[in-house]
Amino acid sequence: MTEFAEVVRARRMTRAFATTPIASTLLDDLVDLAARAPSAGKVQGWHLVVLEGADTERFWNVTLPPERRDTFRWQRLLDAPVIALPFADAGAYVDRYAEPDKEGTGLGDGPDAWPAPYWTIDASMAVMTLLLAAEDVGLGALFFGVFHDADRLRAELGVPADLELLGALALGHRAGDAERGRSAARSRRTPGEIIHRGRW
To answer: Taking the model in full, what pTM does it have?
Structure first.
């Protein structure tokens, strides 16, 4: 098995973290790798708002206020020393595809001209690369949705209204064995269940 295959197979969503900080240089290295993910027109139209240490409380105070924490299943998730929020920028793609070398595509006319939201696709590939990079250096990571109070969170962090929030990334050192999520019991689909050769 190649090193890459080992990293892919080892990667799991981590829900229990130690409070040990992550060196800012290591975080920069992980983001540098994520920036190498595929990107239409090399737009790289995604951003990360990174909260570290005690600053992560700003995220939790909006999305999981103290009065709701006693019943929260994943208590050690709150110990993650880094919460990173990935945002996709549709406007950056429209602007890039209005440039002379891309204007013939018609994609510079606006987000509705695109057959698929490549800003979301590209940002998602960058997030996946970041998850794999974290695994490669022995860090735990969890990508999870921000299903409540996203507008309050955006206001708290000063994020422009036209950027799309994908979710949240918790990063840090794993804190021993944690209870697995319920979805982990589901079987993984086989290639035979996924591939349709020649036609559907």
So the answer is: 0.92
What pLDDT digit, counting tens, does each position of 118-134 carry?
999 999 999 999 999 99
**CA–CA distance, 57 with 83 (Å, rounded to integer):** 9
Give the integer Cα–Cα distance in Å for 18 and 77.
9
Nearest CA to 111 out of 167, 44, 162 is that of 162
Rounded Cα gap, residues 150 and 129, in angstroms: 24
Q: Which CATH architecture has domain 3-194?
A: 3-Layer(aba) Sandwich (3.40)
What would the DSSP string read from start to end of 102-119?
Answer: TGGGSGGG-GGG-SS-HH
Other CB atoms closer than 10 Å to residue 183's CB: what's the count?
7
- Cα distance between residue 45 and residue 89, in whole Å: 5
Angle at 174 between CA 173 and CA 177, to 5 degrees: 165
3-state SS assignment for residue 51:
strand
Residue type, 111: P
Cα(88)–Cα(37) distance, rounded to whole angstroms?
Answer: 14
